[in-house]
Design brief:
Elements: E1 2-4, H1 7-19, E2 24-29, H2 35-47, E3 50-55, H3 75-84, E4 89-91, H4 95-98, H5 117-120, H6 124-139, E5 143-147, H7 151-163, E6 169-173, H8 193-198, H9 200-214, H10 220-232, E7 237-246, E8 260-268, E9 271-278
Parallel strand pairs: 1-4, 2-3, 2-5, 3-4, 5-6
Antiparallel strand pairs: 7-8, 8-9
The chain binds adenosine monophosphate.
Adenosine monophosphate binds next to helix 2 and strand 5.
Length: 282
């Protein structure tokens, strides 16, 4: 397993693999890897001859008041995890390698980004689409792996790949959770002991919503109302949103009469956490 910091090194390695007729999977990450990331690496390792993991805290997808500076980083830990899960190459560039002086081209999307996280994080998806496009151009993978944990991101990437005719198969992987239900996230590390306990309201409300859907509830405001009530009972929690949207358009719906995504974003203290479920997975 190799760690490289330059685009030229990635390209040289992938060229060598291609000359041998090998297939390549890409797992884009911001590092501080956990079992959620590991599941994507496992999936790529299973489907492809070689796996590249990008490990880059992308400044462009953070808003001015967000946690770019404090975002956790630990490349040694990441390297051990990637190696243990069969990854072959980590691309760990400095911001200057990805965004040279005078950088001025962006990939943006006018649909799918107007709801959910797009509302509270206005520059986020432009940053995600731009960096993922760059990573696709640098690695030119056969397949790329994204977690359903970031459900809107997955939908946006699929849409971008379709719109821009990128010849890459996008694979969505299930949410990996802690034993008590909390979705694994690099940001969980920000939580104090009390906040870690309080953060359980996210998964509890997701499980409650899933249960209601399983039992046949199709009225979205009934589901949302019950989920909100559960979250609001936790003093350390502050809801950003609890919404149910059409999977294809990311627009809110009132009745579960088509494949839908129920997504939540909740502040626990100052840490913003997300979770979700797809009705199709219930
Ligand atoms: P991040 O490093 O947070 O940008 O995440 C990199 C990739 O890992 C994204 O595709 C995420 O959706 C995915 N991911 C993060 N947490 C989880 C999780 N708990 N389960 C599954 N995938 C995850």
């Amino acid at each position: 397993m190799k760690i490289v910091k330059t685009i030229a090194e990635v390209r040289a390695q992938v060229k060598e693999w291609r000359a041998q007729g090998l297939t390549v999977g890409l797992v884009p990450t911001m590092g501080y890897l956990h079992e959620g990331h590991a599941s994507l690496i496992d999936a790529s390792h299973r489907d492809n001859d070689r796996t590249v993991v990008s490990d880059f805290v992308n400044p462009m997808q953070f808003g001015p008041t967000e946690d770019l500076e404090s975002y956790p980083r630990d490349i040694d830990h990441d390297a051990a995890l990637v190696e243990a899960h069969g990854g072959d190459l980590i691309f760990h560039p400095e911001p200057e390698e990805m965004y040279h002086d005078g950088f001025s081209s962006f990939v943006d999307m006018t649909v799918l980004t107007q709801e959910l996280c797009g509302l509270s994080r206005p520059v986020h998806f432009r940053g995600v689409c731009t960096v993922v496009s760059k990573l696709f151009n640098i690695v030119k993978p056969d397949r790329a792996y994204f977690g359903k944990k970031d459900a809107q991101q997955l939908a946006v990437i699929r849409h971008m790949v379709d719109d821009l005719n990128m010849d890459i198969e996008i694979i969505g992987c299930p949410i990996i959770r802690e034993a008590d239900g909390l979705a694994k996230s690099s940001r969980n590390t920000y939580l104090s002991e009390a906040e870690r306990k309080a953060a359980l309201v996210l998964s509890k409300s997701i499980f409650l919503g899933m249960d209601m859907v399983k039992k046949g509830e199709s009225n979205c405001s009934a589901i949302i109302g019950s989920m909100k009530k559960l979250i609001e009972a936790e003093p350390l929690a502050r809801i950003d949103y609890v919404k149910i949207v059409d999977c294809a358009t990311m627009q809110q719906i009132t009745t579960l009469d088509r494949p839908a995504l129920c997504a939540i974003a909740v502040y626990i203290g100052s840490t913003r956490l997300i979770d979700n479920f797809f009705t199709e997975d219930v």
